[in-house]
Every structure is written in structure tokens, then in C-alpha cells.
Amino acid sequence: MTITNDVVLPEDSELTVQEVDLSTSTLRAGSFHLGKYCEQVNNEFMLCRFEEKDPRKCLNEGKAVTACTLEFFRKVKKTCLAEFNQYAHCIDKSSGDMGLKHCRKTQGVFDQCMLEKLNLERPSFGYFTEARVHATTRPKPPVEEKAVYPDATPALPEDAEKKPPRYGSRFYWMTE
């Protein structure tokens, strides 16, 4: 991708946040509860990315997602560490693809701990695929108007004669 001089890139200090240094099995073990715990923050970030179409404008929302993730795992560490570690270890060691189906018993113990101590219920199957309306306080960006080029080739007039194709149409199965 080519960048011109008028593109402003953020400073390193704006991009520096504490990273979430966790293994894949650990992230998979906490993914469902994390998704529900940080749902509002994640939706705000994704809405910003979709509307702005420029990740540089959504740095603060991205930092909020990282902060929420760190807060979630700190709470899990404080309240359900043993159950969580057992579940993550099972995911890591039970299969080559880190499948969850072999670890339903340890998952149940972890889910029960999360429900009792953090009052966070495991989302039902299909929860994250349901359509939801996200309410935001961030103003909607202005819509860019379509560029008009004065030297563009003019289009054919509506009443112009349109001859049939010489060798037939590629839509030969469609009849008028």
C-alpha cells in the first residue's frame, strides 16, 4: 500500500497498551464468557471500524477492548483460577485441534464457578449470531458525497438505440 505525505500516522505512544499475553488454549477457555463480558465495548469498536473505515480513528475504542479483556482475565484469576486452569489445560492437552468436546466436564465446573462468583452465565448456543441493535453515544460520521468528475465520459442517453448482441446473450436461458 502506498502512503502519501498527507497521511498522518499515530505516534508509538498512542499505540502502546499492555498486551494480553495469553496462550491460545487460555483464550479459547475464556472466549465465551469474555465475549459476553466485553460485548458492549467490542460492539462499539466494530461499529467504529465499520463506520469510519479507518482504524486510526478507532484507537481509543481498541484500547478499551484490550482493557476490558485484561479486566476480565484478572477477575477470573482472582475468583475461578483453579477451575479455569483445569479447563484450559484440558483444552490444550486433550486433542490436537484444541477441541472443546473432550472437556465438557471441566467446562461445566468452570461455568458453575463463573455463575456463582461473577454472576456471568455462559451464553447459549448461537448467542453471538443473533442480530442486536447497538446503542452508541458516538456521533455518526458524515456521509461522503459521491465524487463528480467534470471530464468523465458521458453516459448513453436513455432513448439511445440498443441493438441486440451479435452472437447472442450469455443469459440464453432467460427469455423476455
From TrEMBL:
What high-level taxonomic lineage is stated for the organism? Eukaryota, Metazoa, Ecdysozoa, Arthropoda, Hexapoda
Q: Which InterPro entries match?
A: NDUFA8
Q: What is this protein called?
A: NADH dehydrogenase [ubiquinone] 1 alpha subcomplex subunit 8
Location in or out of the cell: Mitochondrion inner membrane
Question: Coiled coil: which residue ranges?
Answer: none
> What's this chain's function?
Accessory subunit of the mitochondrial membrane respiratory chain NADH dehydrogenase (Complex I), that is believed not to be involved in catalysis. Complex I functions in the transfer of electrons from NADH to the respiratory chain. The immediate electron acceptor for the enzyme is believed to be ubiquinone.
Q: Which GO terms describe its cellular component?
A: mitochondrial inner membrane
Q: Name one GO biological process term.
A: mitochondrial electron transport, NADH to ubiquinone
PROSITE patterns, A to Z = CHCH
Q: Which domain of life is it from?
A: Eukaryota
Q: Does the keyword Zinc-finger apply?
A: no
Keywords attached to this Swiss-Prot or TrEMBL record, sorted alphabetically, are: Disulfide bond, Electron transport, Membrane, Mitochondrion, Mitochondrion inner membrane, Repeat, Respiratory chain, Transport
Q: Is NADP one of the keywords?
A: no
Write out the similarity annotation.
Answer: Belongs to the complex I NDUFA8 subunit family.
Provenance organism: Leptosia nina
